[in-house]
Each structure stands twice: as C-alpha cells, then as structure tokens.
User: Fold HTH araC/xylS-type domain-containing protein from Luteipulveratus mongoliensis.
Amino acid sequence: MERGMLEVTSPALAAYADRFWSVRWRRYGEPLEVSEVITNPVCHLTFEDGRREDGGPLVRQGIELPAAVLTTVWTDRFVVRLEGEARVLGVRFRPGAMAAIAGRPLSADQSLAVDDVLTGSADTLSRVLAEPTDEGRREIVQDWLEPQLPEPAPDYLEAAALVDAIHLDASIVRVEQIGDAAGLSVRSVQRLFRRYIGVTPKWVLLRCRLQDAAASLDGDPSADLAEIATRLGWYDQSHFVRDFRRFLGVTPGEYARDASGVRP
Assistant:
C-alpha cells in the first residue's frame, strides 16, 4: 500500500481543511487484508476508483466506485477491505467544517454521495481520475471547492477551536471544562457540537483522552494503567479498559505489549 500527504495550498480552503491525503493499493492473488482506522471528529471528502480481483467495481459503504464520497464523523473504527486495486485522493476537513460549508448539521456515521452536499462533483471526479499526479489532483479539487466556500462563520470557528482545545489539553477531562476558557456554558457547548461537529462533546472528549492514553503507552509500555486512567479522567480502571477496547479494538495491556514488541 502506498500512502501520501499533501498540504492545502488554497488560503480559502485552509480555513476549512487541514490536509490532502492519498492511498493506493494493488492486491491480486493475495489474501484479503483489512485496514482499520481510528477515527477523529472530522469529515473526509474522497475521490475513489477501484475494482475487485474479478474485474467488478469495488463497493464502499454501499457506494459503487468510481465515486466522490463524503464520509461524516465515524464513531466506531473505520474498516476498509484491501482487495483488488484502488486509488483514493482525500480531503480531511477541520472539525465542523463540512456542516459549515453545507449550511446544515451532518449526522455521524454516514457515507454520502458528494452531490448531496456540494455541486459539480461528477465532472470533478472524472477530471481527478484522469489526472496522474496527486499534486494535479489536489489543484483540481481546490479549484472546484473554492467558489463554494462561504466566509467562515464565527460559530463554526468557535466550535473548531473547542475541539482543538480538547485535543491539545489533556487536563480537560470533563464536559464542564470544555467551555471554561471560552466563557461558554455546557448548554452552549452542546449546541455548537450538535450544529457543527456531529457528535457530542463527551464523545470527542473520550476519543481525545484515549488517544493520549495510547500515546502514553507508546512512550512507555510499562506505564501504570491505573495512573493513566486517573490522570486522564477515568474514575476506575475497569471503565478505562472497556472504553479503550471499544475504541481501539484491544485492551490497554494488549496495546502495551504490542508497543513494547513483547508477545505473550
């Protein structure tokens, strides 16, 4: 599998998206492989083409390829079957960005045809698929998106800043703390998340603190799990283990063994 990352070079788009990414694979005559992605509270816009080993089209989340797909915030691990061959160019948007562009809330756990939200995706898809380089594909997508981008609304920027603060400040462990620095009530925070982010503040908080827990174990696989749980806001280790397994697919102990290279 080949992966790539590209900067957003359009100033207008940079207010809404933080990166382009690409992935491609070609797997014929090989065992089926599954890729699991641990998700963040963001939407992705993808331009995808692919075919199965028997020559038929690949289908992702009920959408037949080739297609331009908008994937909203995914609340579980995102699973992709690596079969046949495929090539994808994606745009990772900032938290709340697609709801701001669409002018309406977008529910979580959806894979939508992009024309449901933005116009002109069919022509853009054909141009993207005809372009051989990721850099050229990026320019096509930026040129298409720019005229459809509104001036960033203050509420959107505030919602995105709240999510950024949760990511950056591991001392935020309760919903009540999220709006403190911005002088917002819990109800105001919940309203912003409902309008723009597509998931609850509690979900984002849990997701970010579990990322911090995984990072702690990456840095020190022998770290005390009870200390990590308490420091990051869990009242008991059993709830920490349950949440860790639900989001990351393994227990903290199993994750630590993998991080250390030790096998039972």
